[in-house]
Amino acid sequence: MPGFANRSLLDIEGLTRADVERILDTAEAFLQVSRRPVRKVPTLRGKTIINLFYEASTRTRTSFELAGKRLSADVINMNVSASSVKKGETLQDTCRTLQAMHPDVIVIRHGASGAPNYVASKIDCSVINAGDGMHAHPTQALLDAFTIRRDKGTLDNLVVTIVGDIAHSRVARSNAHLLKLFDCEVRVVGPRTLLPAAADSLGVRVFDDLKTALDGADVVMVLRIQSERLEGALLPSMREYARTFGIGPRTIAYAKPDAIVMHPGPMNRGVEIESLVADGERSVVLEQVEAGLAVRMALLYLFAGEGAEPPAVGEAD
Ligand code: CP
User: Fold this and answer.
1) What predicted TM-score, i.e. pTM, was given to this entire model?
2) What is the distance in A from the centroid of ligand 1 to the CA of 131?
3) Tell me: the pLDDT tens digits for 89-145?
4) Quick check: CB of 57 below 6 Å from ligand 1?
5) Cα 31 to middle of ligand 1, angstroms
6) Suppose 298 and one of 26, 88, 91, 219 were both cysteines; which one would form an S-S bond, judging by CB atoms 3.0 to 4.6 Å apart?
7) Is the peptide bond before 42 cis (omega within 30 degrees of 0)?
8) Is the per-residue pLDDT at 230 higher than 80?
9) How far apart are alpha carbons 212 and 106 in whole angstroms?
10) Whose Cα sits closest to atom 3 in ligand 1?
11) SS (HEC) of 114-133
12) What CA–CA distances, in Å, run from 24 to 18, 30, 44, 193, 287?
């Protein structure tokens, strides 16, 4: 299997099943590092990681920063709102400027689909896509896969139902591509106006009835309505959406009794998910957050630190 060093992670389509398994197996080691009393290893000492977030983020930005710091890398968080981007600097000039500082990895979130691909074509270091427009969120799909594999013991042949605003969701797209590598049956359900036009190319089954879509589901993935990406009135009202497609104690009963409930966050409680489910025993929302840190540590290690010693029990700075 080819290594990851100096490669970029732009979408899931660039990964093989073996790549995904290697990332998840590596993340298992880093999960244990994060659970130790001393949560730091010297693996990326002397390496530089730049986090470049053009869109808001809580989980992804914080976990990439923490991942780099726990690996002992130098981590720079560029505050785009306080940068020369506000003075009209182009993405190309920003990237060329950062390139001159010789980073090892640039992590980028951008509102425009394809921005990370553009950056990767302009500079030499590894680029990791932390979410671009409606295109892809590959590290979210990897952390979701890690969470599912830990709970179910496997990723193979599961029934995964993704509920909500599929059309505007980079999370849904990346998850669909990853889960198809493991022969999962991926179902999407939501209002017709929020279902993808090109469902065939995603390889998913499309439903507009929640009960049918949840029947036999092992995993229920709930998505937020992406209000910031909606053009025009695609929904009659949030109240009607909640009544028809919201996941609560009544509707989650349509899935398998041991089905887990996932949400990438941020959650709109009372709209796509009720608190009784979000905070209930089937919810793995906080496990997803913990997985995000482990998976991002694994990615930084594989992309910037291959050849360095992997983490060992008891190793600390
Ligand atoms: N899931 C996710 O990408 O969350 P943030 O927008 O908070 O990073």
Assistant:
1) 0.95
2) 9
3) 999 899 889 999 999 999 999 999 999 999 999 999 999 999 999 999 999 999 999
4) yes
5) 19
6) 26
7) no
8) no
9) 42
10) 60
11) CHHHHHHHHCCCEEEEEEEC
12) 10, 10, 19, 35, 14
